[in-house]
Design a protein that fits this description.
The structure holds 2 protein chains of 2 kinds. In chain A, 72% of the residues lie in helices and 0% in strands. Chain A has 5 helices and no strands. By secondary structure, chain B is mainly alpha-helical. Chain B has a domain at 87-131. Chain B is 71% helix and 0% strand. Chain B contains 4 helices and no strands. Classes of the chains: A mainly alpha, B mainly alpha. At the A-B interface, helix 1, helix 2, helix 3 and helix 4 of A face helix 3 and helix 4 of B.
Chain lengths: 161, 131
């Protein structure tokens, strides 16, 4: 009498695994470039956070306006890291301290700029979606307290070759 | 009339073997009824009802079991379909979570100069920031 329910349970488990496997095979695999373009990111924002078409275009303008600022910061970070590497190589403590101070300053500037950019995008969402967007993105950007997703960009230590 | 003499024990034993009713006493009515009912149940195959169950419940139990046996295949089919659906739903939800995570990561990399710099440092041939 007990055997029949056990057989049904095992068959149900097999059916669940089959459903999982068939669905995973049927779904298109994610490419490494998923979301790499601005259009793809805007489409995701629109879908995920309920942006209106006008809000989407406004966010596109905000991103386009922020891009040069982001690029300048990226170049400044590259220069500061190169200066630190050469200071480490030369063994000059004053140059090393100056390079570390510059990197710390850039961290602060970039964190503020990134947060401001996120807030300007969130301003075009409903309050609930904006809160969700900020909570999601703030944990992903570098040098933000509670960041969890992106790799850390800590400067190379003095002991590193 | 002369009283009959005491019967011979051997004769009495002989008479007892000839007459099975000899020495039997009449049982009380309740015990007799219980014995008759037990005899009827054993001959008809009906199970003894549990205390507190009336005759109506006794006939409903076999019907409930028969109904359960009839519905078991349908329940099994529904359970299998539900499991198939649950497995598919779980796979789809996992795929959507992974997709969402990719977009979040790509968006973060497009606005954070530190992440952008890290991408360029590790893979200078593939710029992470596109317009």
């Amino acid at each position: 009498m007990l055997r029949r329910p056990v057989v049904i349970f095992i068959l149900a488990l097999v059916a669940a695994l089959a459903g999982y496997g068939i669905t995973r095979l049927a779904l298109r695999p994610l490419s490494p470039q998923t979301g790499a373009t601005t259009d793809a990111q805007l489409a995701w924002l629109e879908r995920e956070f309920g942006l209106s078409p006008e809000a989407r275009e406004e966010v596109r303008r905000i991103k386009a306006a922020y891009a040069p600022i982001c690029e300048d910061h990226c170049i400044a970070i590259g220069r500061a890291e190169a200066a630190r590497k050469s200071a480490l190589a030369s063994g000059d403590p004053a140059a090393l301290a100056a390079a570390d101070a510059e990197l710390a300053r850039l961290k602060e500037v970039c964190a503020e700029a990134t947060l401001g950019h996120l807030r300007s995008i969130a301003a075009h969402m409903s309050p609930a979606q904006a809160q969700r967007f900020l909570a999601l993105m703030q944990s992903r950007v570098a040098h933000h307290p509670g960041r969890s997703g992106a790799p850390d960009l800590a400067p190379p230590s003095a002991s590193a070759p | 009339m002369h009283p009959s003499p005491a019967p011979d024990p051997a004769l009495r034993a002989l008479l007892r073997r000839a007459d099975p009713a000899d020495g039997l006493t009449s049982p009380p009515p309740a015990a007799f009824a219980a014995a008759v009912h037990a005899r009827i149940r054993s001959e008809t195959g009906l199970a003894r009802p549990a205390p507190g169950i009336d005759s109506v419940s006794v006939t409903h139990v076999p019907r409930a079991r028969a109904l359960a046996r009839q519905l078991l295949p349908l329940a099994a089919a529904l359970a299998l379909l539900a499991s198939l659906g649950a497995g598919s739903a779980f796979a789809y939800a996992k795929h959507e979570r992974e997709r969402s995570e990719r977009y979040v990561s790509a968006f973060a990399r497009s606005i954070d100069p530190w992440l952008m710099h890290a991408d360029r440092s590790t893979s200078p041939a593939t710029p992470a920031h596109r317009h």
